[in-house]
Design a protein that fits this description.
The chain is an alpha/beta fold. It has two domains: about 10-180 and about 360-370, Rossmann fold (3-Layer(aba) Sandwich), CATH 3.40.50; about 205-355, Rossmann fold (3-Layer(aba) Sandwich). The protein is built from 14 helices and 13 strands. The protein has helices spanning about 25-35, 75-85, 95-110, 130-145, 155-165, 215-230, 245-255, 270-275, 290-295, 310-315, 330-340, 345-355, 360-370, 370-379, and strands spanning about 10-15, 40-45, 60-65, 90-95, 115-120, 150-155, 175, 205-210, 235-240, 260-265, 280, 300-305, 320-325. The strands form two sheets. The protein has a seven-stranded parallel β-sheet with strand order 3-2-1-4-5-6-7, with helices on both faces. Strands 10-9-8-11-12-13 form a six-stranded parallel β-sheet, with helices on both faces. Strand 5, helix 4 (about 130-145) and strand 6 form a beta-alpha-beta unit. Helix 1 crosses helix 13 (about 360-370) and helix 9 (about 290-295) crosses helix 12 (about 345-355). GO terms for molecular function: glycosyltransferase activity.
């Protein structure tokens, strides 16, 4: 499957299930491309080489397709890859692939440095609904993660949560904020259909994210229905997921069908951030919250639930956007109305977003992935 090569000191690999739309997938693409620009040889190793973000990879990134359709079968393909490619460093993302990567390295006996990265606030994860699954996740992290050379969480709150959840030493976990803001010109956005629905004199509200329970779009829709009693507004929700049927039914029940549009996953959405009067996040859990930074980067005001863990850190406790209690539609409607009526310091919002630049995150990751190299370069 893989041609044997000599170990290259700047050769690194990123392990991920696939590159379908999602925050962790976007982070992996941003890092891979940035590592290439810094002169590193980069493999992105996928269980299945599919997803909307594949086309965003730098042409010099090597895509390795393990052709695995179930995580349970990934262990030995990973072992084979490590023995053949012999990367200097592996960055493995998202449980249970993080667990498989640690075990695969041990079985391969390849002296590869391994860092695992978790993008979730685990105490809020939807996977914990079944007690047996929760036990498996906790124990696997507790026993396996200490064998890795580094553990990354994407916010300090997520790091603290992971330490409590898996009973890990807090000092063993490094907080590295996600790389969101780049210097390049964003691609042209995909046009919405029906055309013209988004434009007009009404207030434009934007929400972005997978249609799943933890995003709590049900509360957002209830809040928007309350807002519509006061403000002429339209709500655009960009994302796809299993909650779509329930959300469509809720829109009809609330009588707001003409004011809510859910076109599904849209890859390039920069223009919609720019056109929006307000970006809203209603989640009950966010390891980080890429969409908040994406909105701030173009000066769009943000209202977010004060969920664990990323939003409070990104917004500095409310300095750069309003924070409201989770699951409270009335409070969310009030915050949206207040934000729409307020004057915002656009330059301050844009400046805050620069704290989450791709360059800054790349520096932090390289310090952890290649500690001897970066230490020597800085000495």
């Amino acid at each position: 499957m893989f041609a044997p090569v000599l170990k290259i000191s700047n050769h690194l690999s990123i392990f991920l299930p696939d590159l379908r739309g999602g925050g962790a997938e976007r982070v992996a693409v941003n890092l891979a491309n940035s590592f290439i620009q810094r002169g590193y040889a980069v493999d992105i190793v996928l269980l299945s080489a599919e997803g909307d973000f594949l086309s965003d990879l730098h042409p010099n990134v090597t895509v390795v397709d393990l052709h695995v359709d179930r995580l349970r079968w990934v262990l030995f393909p990973l072992v084979h890859y490590l023995r053949q490619a012999r990367p200097a460093v592996v960055l493995a993302c998202m449980w249970p692939l993080t667990i498989a990567a640690v075990v695969a390295r041990a079985l391969s006996r390849v002296p590869t440095r391994l860092v695992v990265a978790e993008h979730t606030t685990w105490s809020r994860s939807e996977l914990l609904k079944r007690p047996t699954v929760e036990w498996q996740i906790r124990k696997s992290m507790h026993w396996v993660f200490p064998a890795a050379d580094g553990i990354v969480a994407v916010s300090q709150g997520a790091a603290d949560d992971l330490a409590r959840f898996a009973n890990l030493e807090a000092q063993s976990i490094t907080c590295i904020y996600n790389p969101v803001v780049g210097d390049g010109k964003p691609p042209a956005p995909e046009p919405l259909s029906p055309s013209g629905w988004w434009t007009g004199q009404h207030c434009k509200l934007l929400a972005v994210g997978t249609l799943k329970e933890i995003k709590d779009y049900a509360t957002l829709l209830n809040a928007f229905a309350l807002l519509r009693q006061r403000v002429d507004a339209r709500l655009l929700i960009l994302g796809e997921g299993e909650c779509r049927p329930a959300l469509v039914a809720q829109v009809r029940q609330l009588g707001i069908k003409a004011s809510v549009f859910m076109p599904g996953f849209v890859k390039d959405i920069s223009l919609y951030y720019q056109q929006a009067d307000l970006h809203v996040l209603s989640s009950t859990g966010e390891g980080f919250g890429n969409v908040i930074v994406e909105a701030l980067a173009v000066g769009t005001p943000v209202v977010s639930t004060d969920c664990p863990s990323g939003p409070r850190e990104i917004l500095c406790g409310g300095q750069f956007g309003r924070l409201v209690p989770m699951g409270n539609a009335a409070a969310l409607a009030d915050a949206m109305a207040e934000s729409l009526a307020a004057t915002h310091d656009t330059a301050a919002l844009i400046a805050r977003a620069q704290d989450f630049s791709i360059d800054k995150a790349t520096d932090r990751y390289l310090e952890l992935l290649f500690p001897q190299t970066t230490t020597s370069a800085n000495s």
